[in-house]
User: Fold this.
Amino acid sequence: MTASPLPPELQDVERMVARMLAETTDRDPDPLLRSRILDSVRDGLRRETLRSRRLFAAAAAATALIVANLSLSAVLVTDCGPRLADGRVSVAETRDRIQELLPTLEAGEALRQARILGLVSETESQLPLVSAPSLLHAQGESAP
Amino acid sequence: MQNSSREPDFNALLRGLAAGEEKAFEALYDHYGLRLYRAALALSGDRQEAEDAVQDVVLGIVRTKARMIHVKNLTAYLFSALRHAVSRAASRRSRVRAALEVLAAEGPSSMTPEPDGSGDGRTERLDRALQALPAEQQEVLRLKLEAGLTFAEIAEVLDVNNHTAASRYRYALEKLRARFGGAS
Assistant:
């Protein structure tokens, strides 16, 4: 794509220079260059894939830790039902509340649900509150 | 080295490169490898540097493959990357040369290469004539005649407009004509 065509005398020079350049020896690369470059490409692609997988695994682990910690925090601040003076959940009162909320639920099932909530509440109170950064830190230290 | 003259489907090629498909890299090399090498050789004048520059360009795509999907003109992209690779190699070479000069100044050395006396008179005459051209004209001439780039591609690579690329080419030919006293 020329702005204007070359005059004939310059076309002659162009042909001559092109011919002389083409006659220059050693204009082709080492025949092994192709395989050398493509081998390096394969290695590079493999390394990139491994790196992406490691990054994904690390991100997934960090996300799981954060979600676990948030869930734990949510559970710890959730009150499961009426409590007795010693802090335990009153099963009878919880059963009554459940029945008030769901009059169609059978008495036996309401009692079962109240007992489950009581057990959950007692388990929660024994769980330590752990911060996400400390979990991540601990994970990092144990990594190879 | 193969150098497929059949134009590949550039969009498919770019997608393949972005996805990290080995076949796409093979197609890229088969289509551009020789032209890239010759352009690098033309710009650097050194076979090893030219090979390293081509390798740098291809491996650079591996590292930044996700970006390939946004490339509009693959040819211009490749030759532009090549120009940077050659320029980096030249700067490395000048550092090495400076270090060698320091070593040579410290004592006798057998590290200085001997002139090999190879090459016929015509080639040497052409080399001298090309070396006498201003760098920007020499660059355009070599990219056009050795790497086979169009003026549009040269313009993209050198970041100038088409008219400037064509003018530099024309000036270079005029100077060579004056030097050779007409084409033989």
